[in-house]
Design brief:
By secondary structure, this protein is α+β, with helices and mostly antiparallel strands. Helix content is about 30%, strand content about 25%. It has 13 helices and 20 strands. The chain has a seven-stranded antiparallel sheet with strand order 6-3-2-10-9-1-20, covered by helices on one side. Helix 3 runs antiparallel to helix 4 and helix 5 runs antiparallel to helix 9. The longest helix is centred in the N-terminal third of the chain and has 15 residues. The radius of gyration is 21 Å and the shape is globular. It starts with a helix and ends with a strand.
Length: about 425
Amino acid sequence: MSKSVLLLLLGLSSCAYFIERIDTPLVRNSDAIRRPPETPGHCALDGKGDFLLTGTNDKAQVVYTEFTKALGQRLDFLDHFALWNLFQLSIRPDQSSPTSRLQVLLSKDGSSHYFDFFSEAPEEQYPYLYGIEWVLKKFGKKTSLEYYAGLIMGHLGTRLKIGKDFELFLTTNLPAIKADPAVSAFYLRGADVLKEGETSPFLDYRAVIGHYRKAQRDQKIIVNTALTPFVMERGLGGSCNYDFNLYDNSIFLIDKIVPVANLYGLATLSGAFLASSSQRLDQVTGLKGLPLFKGLSKVRSSAVCMIENNGNKIWAISNQSRDPGQHLFHLVRYGLPGSRSVSDVDKLIRHSRHLFLSDPLRLIIESARSSEEQIENLLKLNLPIYNAERLGNIWAYTQFPEGQRFIIDRRNPGALLCR
């Protein structure tokens, strides 16, 4: 594909990857094209935003706030960092497991950081727990993982409920769960798996940390903090974990599979973090007799960008894609670094997207979010074009003079709590 054609397509819509069927060619004046409602993906700015939570399970966010109140003690930002990460073991044990990869965008005391924890070793590795502990130590926190496990075990009066994303995982993997007695004992009820809103299995957090300690000598965890900078024409820039020079030269990093990840975050007045945890599950099997799933952290990373100009912060994480970097590359081209408010960023995330795929070369677009002019121009191209109801998943954290906010992608399940 020539660079001129690529630039033309970039001018028509933003991009992402498909998660719906794409076997129906895009047609003119299709009755199936219906523009989705314009629902903002962030909390209103009429609140202070002193305490923010985001994830895919709204009930878990309520439980977490009740849990922290029940502690009866003041928690600092790093306490919340450790506890909200540990909570994910019960919320998304498929993608937030001790064996998962952990990527974190974090701000504390005015400085921003990126951390990526994973392993390529053949032995059983626990980069998720290693990463939590590593961050605590980096910022001088001397509290142990055992301490936080004790807090959860002693004060989590209300059990967590199954969320929509985790129910989808259980339903999709029903045959494998039935075949593994260790897993089915936790997640099978009769002939079916647990559903959204049902009580999650009890997780012994002390046992989780105990297994990690026993294997600590064998941990071969890679800690990556490198991001590649980019600069726009107006001097605005940022840094990402994907090299945008490749996309500038029409080189797309298209994978054969669509890796899944759990996105979540927390923000207080003294710090914020937005995280992605993921693992490859070649087999659906339990971990150490616990209601956790064992996988490999050597999995394609979510795409992340940190954009900080003129005192403003914009962080973005893109996942659920065969090429998640395409999402953020196009958002940057559409002016993400120049955004001046949470509303500006939210509108870019809600904008129509497309994705280039190869072998054969074709284009997938969200026609329901595209204008008539965009569709007419695309139909003139000598390129197979297919329709998708929704493409990709991008979450963000922003900090502007108006306040701090998380932004979720309304294409997919997500929940916000703002106080």
